[in-house]
Amino acid sequence: MTPAPPAFLRFETLSKTYDDVHAVRDVSLAIESGEFVALVGASGSGKSTLLKCINRLVEPTFGRVLLDGEDVLAGPAPLIRRRIGYVFQGIGLFPHMSVAQNIALTPRLVGESLTDARIAELLELVELHPAMASRLPAELSGGQRQRVGVARALAGDSHLLLMDEPFGALDPITRGQLGQRVRGLHRELGLTTVMVTHDMAEALLLASRVLVMDGGQIVADETPSALLAGKGGLVAQALVEVPREQARQLAGMGE
Amino acid sequence: MSPLLEAVLNLGPQLAEHVLLCAAAVALGIAVALPLAVWSSRSATVAKVALGFASLVQTIPALALLALFFPILLAARSIFGPDLPTLGFLPAWLALALYALLPILRNAVTALANLDDELIEAADGLGMTAWQKLRLVQAPLAAPFVMAGIRTASVWTIGAATLATTIGQRSLGDPIFAGLQTQNWVLVLAGCIASAGLALVADALFGMVERGFATRRPGLVIAGAALALAGIAGAAASTVDWRGDGRENVVIGAKSFSEQYILARAIGSVLEDAGYGVEYREGLGSAVVHNAVASSAIDISVDYTGTLWTNTLERTDNPGRAAMYEKIVQWEDANTGVRVLGRLGFENAYGLAVTQETAERYGLSSIADLASVAPQLTIGGDPEWFERPEWNAVRDAYGLSFGDQRTYSPTFMYNALLSGEADVISAYTSDGRIAARNLVVLSDPQEALPSYDAILLLSPRVAGDAALADALQPLLGAVDVETMREANYTVDRQDDKWSPARAGQWLLDRIER
């Protein structure tokens, strides 16, 4: 009998404490290549902290994170981060660089440059016109900026995409469109994606696996259909109840 | 050509050295402040200490900061050897660089601290190293603010650098100090116009660079920086001695009053005739001069026996004129290696002077007469006077207790006496204004005030130069007090004012006759 191949991403008894507060408490978890995982929970449930332990924006107090079987804490932080795409609510496009320069940053850090054709291709992946390449971030709308943010995260050819409330600051229409585009990219590029969101509806619509966090621990680990079928426990069901209730009310108003 | 324009156009060498001094000081300020700012952005403790220190430096008056570097460098000689300069460029450069530190450091620290957290998170998340983050993100975004700090520092430095004159560094302060002492307002104005003009030009150029950074127009940055560098290069080129005959100059020091300027020029003229190259360090603080000559920072100075007796030998007794001179000659020889070449012939003693009118009203002829009326009177003195042992001696000997005491620069002291703001002043007996304004110098029956023979001092560096001593020989014993008063008055009077150089030449002509 051959041993099962190690999981693509693995958390082992991970804890993070700030002063006396447990942000993450003894989390063990395996994520396989190709999964689209949503981390859902209320504010302060520890979901962002857990995510940032992967690319070392947060260093754990105890336990470890293994990426492709290697401890992410081995070696310098910049090296591991360059292998991981990172998109966050703040977007963080550099205002003194054009769209093209922002997208080309990760390759530039290792001394490589991107061709105009590759930048155009990346812009098209996030449904932006290639002519946008020469614009400055200040000239773009919020949605366009986050599309550039996603293109930048993909420019390093990483297979792991981390997203921390990526669509939190966007209007609902843009938010829906960009969510679907990211879902498409996940499939087309064969990515493994971990997305933090407080919006259960978004998680259910985009993810293949939903982890519900509460008080620093994972309290539910279900597929969207299982959650919709009532599984996952009280906390998870309370979160699922929010969009469901909204849908009922909307349906009632239409009658 | 108007005298003012002529005076401004004559400031070429001062302008060039001023530019170089300020450029060097701001450059050193930047070189220290920027790494410190980066370090501060990574450690709150460093930020607190660095900003606290820079702010503290800023509270020290610029003049005092410049003066403080003299003893500091003198002490540093025990580490760096006796060739370390203690006056001139080095202390001025260090003091001004310290002064330039605060605006650059504060702006840079503030700019780095206020960078958007999201941009820093993005930079980290993308996998930038600390250096890449600094180079690609922090430096470009902080650049306009850092440049604004450099701009402020430059304008401050250009202004403060005029004070470098007092520690023997040629600058645009030369005409200001010389003009202030001799009441030559054209010179003062010329110095002010030149330094203000320089500050405006620097402000405009660095403003251009700052705007270039802020609006991301590299052309503006390059143009502004190139123009500034061209100006500095031009200044540097103009100070190079292209003839390169390499002859060693003799440096003549002068304290900041007319007599000293005149004698320095007279000595310089004699030495030039004897084939020496000559430089002047004028407007030096009185206390600095003896240290300067003892440390060979300057080579020749004119000092006064009473001044050295009380300040340098720290004696409080009064052995009489001849004995005091002999004692000083021996003491210098034994302790500093300074050679006292001889006496010039006149005394420039401290005395208490009143107007003719005051003398008559209170019946004053000696200092003893002052004691009973002193409480109704105001005494004015130069900035040193009230700190000097002579003042203590004369005050205690006669039991003087004045109603009020005020400090004036020597020039303004006489104006204060004539305008009635002061009733009694600490006058100098060789001052041309005593005779010209009909002042009464009160006699000193108790001999509380020591004698002040003008003596010529040679630094240890040139003490053994026989040719130099020979050249200066004709000056010894040759200048009587009437001649000195007359020469002083040509420079101090309001109308038909002479330059110290012209008065010095006049003095030499008078001696030869």
TrEMBL record, chain A:
SUPFAM superfamilies: P-loop containing nucleoside triphosphate hydrolases (SSF52540). Pfam families: ABC_tran (PF00005). Residues 9-240 form the ABC transporter domain. One of its GO terms (molecular function) is ATP hydrolysis activity. It comes from the Bacteria. Gene3D superfamilies: P-loop containing nucleotide triphosphate hydrolases (3.40.50.300). InterPro entries: AAA+_ATPase (IPR003593), ABC_SmlMolc_Importer (IPR050093), ABC_transporter-like_ATP-bd (IPR003439), ABC_transporter-like_CS (IPR017871), P-loop_NTPase (IPR027417). Keywords: ATP-binding, Nucleotide-binding, Transport. The keyword Cell inner membrane does not apply. PROSITE patterns: ABC_TRANSPORTER_1, ABC_TRANSPORTER_2. GO terms for biological process: quaternary ammonium group transport. This is ATP-binding cassette domain-containing protein.
TrEMBL record, chain B:
It comes from Aurantiacibacter rhizosphaerae. The lineage of its organism: Bacteria, Pseudomonadati, Pseudomonadota, Alphaproteobacteria, Sphingomonadales. Keywords: Membrane, Transmembrane, Transmembrane helix, Transport. GO terms for molecular function: transmembrane transporter activity. This is ABC transporter permease subunit. It comes from the Bacteria. GO terms for biological process: glycine betaine transport. Residues 15-206 form the ABC transmembrane type-1 domain. It is a multi-pass membrane protein. Gene3D superfamilies: MetI-like, Osmoprotection protein (prox), domain 2, Periplasmic binding protein-like II. GO terms for cellular component: ATP-binding cassette (ABC) transporter complex. InterPro entries: ABC_Gly_betaine_transp_sub-bd, ABC_transp_perm/SBD, MetI-like, MetI-like_sf. Its main location: membrane. In the C-terminal section; belongs to the OsmX family. In the N-terminal section; belongs to the binding-protein-dependent transport system permease family.
